[in-house]
Amino acid sequence: MNRKTVMAVPMACFWAVVAACLLGIVIGSFCDFSINVALANKTGLGAFFATYGSYFSYCLYPAAGACLFVGLRKKGERFHMLAWTLLILGFFMAVYYSNSYNGKAVRALFGYVAGESSPLLSVISWLFWVVLYAWVPLVTVRVLDDSNPDKLIAVGAAILVAGIAADNVNLWLKQVASRPRYKYLITLDDPKSQFRNWWQMVPNLAGSDDSFKSWPSGNMTIASMMFSLPMLADATKKRSEARNLRCFIVACVFVLIYGYNRIHMTNHFLSDVCFGTLITYLIYSAVSVAFMKGLIKAE
User: Fold this and answer.
1) Is 6 in a helix, a strand, or coil?
2) Residue 229 contacts by C-beta under 8 Å, 6 or more apart in sequence?
């Protein structure tokens, strides 16, 4: 791997993301509450994006499974079962996470009411996600460049491992901080009196209460997966540095929109959003460098 790139884009891109996150953290450290007062305003469009926006990020899981599938099958017949297993795992992760985080809204869409509706409606709502992700591995397998199977394996493994690691680190930090969400604070008579900055941590206060799981933003962990899109694009047949940069720009725009949505929908503060992005981005960067190190980029 070229030492001057991280996830298939120049180091300048890496430092730009880090700098933007740090700037947001500094600003948020002084203005978190006032920013939410100015921007928070739940809307139907915001709610729709909050429910389905994560779909684009989760597409990377079955795409990663497809990378592993193609790469391992090129290694020989003895790896075929492992290839199928990881392909299914990547697909399952996308369906599982989507159903876990946003399944309630989809079940409501199908008219399912727990304890009243037929269980079949719940199954149908789950199959909704299966159908929604079915195209991803089919298309990914067709566009990947299989001339360098080691690279495909490294890319697929990096996306899966980093995704799982970032999600669990985020869950742990939510318990460490136990910071009240803005949407909880505004239900109180004096919201500002119960507001806490991100460094005013009360470990394990949150427990299972979602009202105290504001820092860092878990949804930004999901959104920031998109920064691995250039790395995936670099494993395709028609790869180019220009395409990688375009994918990076798409990822940046997506993360910015997602971050605004988390504040707009009263779920998070600016520092929550920036910390969630930075932590995930650093995990993805470190894991990708570790997996890609020593590989000869296929031309």
Assistant:
1) strand
2) 60, 247, 248, 250, 251
